[in-house]
Every structure is written in C-alpha cells, then in structure tokens.
Amino acid sequence: MKKVLLSIAVVAMIGMTSCKNQTEEKQENTEVTEEVKEIAMAETTFGVRGNCGMCKKTIEKAATSVDGVIKADWNIDLKKIDVAYDDSKTDEMAIHNAIAASGYDTDQVAGSEEAYKELPNCCQYDHEMEMSLTEPKDGESGNHHEMEE
After folding, report:
1. 69 backbone φψ class: left, alpha, beta (φ>0; ψ -120 to 50)
2. Percent of the chain, pLDDT > 90?
3. I need a labelling partner for 44 at 20 to 30 A (CA). Which of 62, 84, 96, 137 fits?
4. Helices (DSSP H) in the chain: which residue ranges?
5. How many angstroms separate the CA atoms of 147 and 149, rounded?
6. Could you tell me the pTM of the whole model?
7. CA–CA separation, 59 vs 82, rounded Å?
8. What CA–CA distance (Å, rounded) separates 94 from 85?
9. Residue 106 pLDDT exceeds 60
C-alpha cells in the first residue's frame, strides 16, 4: 500500500513540475512577442494637400486602409498627417501611395488625376498649396499664406 501511495505522489510531483515549466515557457514567448511588437512600431509625419473635413476623412481612410497602419490623423490647418504603423507589415511609401491613389498629393507622391477629378468640388485643392506647415504662433493662421487685397 505504501508503494502505491508513494508512486501516486511521485507521479503527481512530476505532473506539477511539468505544468510549471509550460507556464514559464508561455510567459517567455509572450515577452518575446511583446518586444517584437514594440520594435515593429513606427511613426511618421508628412505633408498632404487637402481643404476640408471631407478631405480629412478620405485621407485618413486611405492611410488606414494600408495593412499595418494603426492610426492616422490629418491636420487640416497644417496640411500634414501623423501616422503610426507596424513597419514589419508596411512602409512609409505604401502609405504615400495609398493616399495618392485616393486623389491627394503627398510631399513625395502626386495624387491620381482620375481620383482627383472624382473628388467633391470642396476637396479639389490647389496643387501648389504648401504642406507640412509648422504650428501657428499666437495671432497667426496656420497656413502662412499672405492675404490678397
């Protein structure tokens, strides 16, 4: 009887030790995955021409349609977009190309003329407008264009 109880105790101890090792392995794998995710995150800011709230929606939708883009925020006044993305899935040029395909010029890629022609009138921007403007100082507008009289 003692041998049976001793055998059961030994088997139980081996089972517990095995479960503990599996838990430790899972924790190590999770830590490695989190580190890879942190390394793969990238952010970029670049200029994009546009005019209004409808432009903002279209530009941001184009950027976030790229696999790996986590967030995109286009600033109407400054004509620039802030993008966070997983650089193991995409790169900055793919984001430029997606925005350009929707009809908007970026500071590196000209917008598709066909897509531009399909934009609403309020979204048909001046192809010469400045992009990637700096934050306005107190009392200034964000566009830095001189007023015509």
Report:
1. beta
2. 60
3. 137
4. 2-40, 53-64, 92-101, 113-118
5. 6
6. 0.66
7. 11
8. 11
9. yes
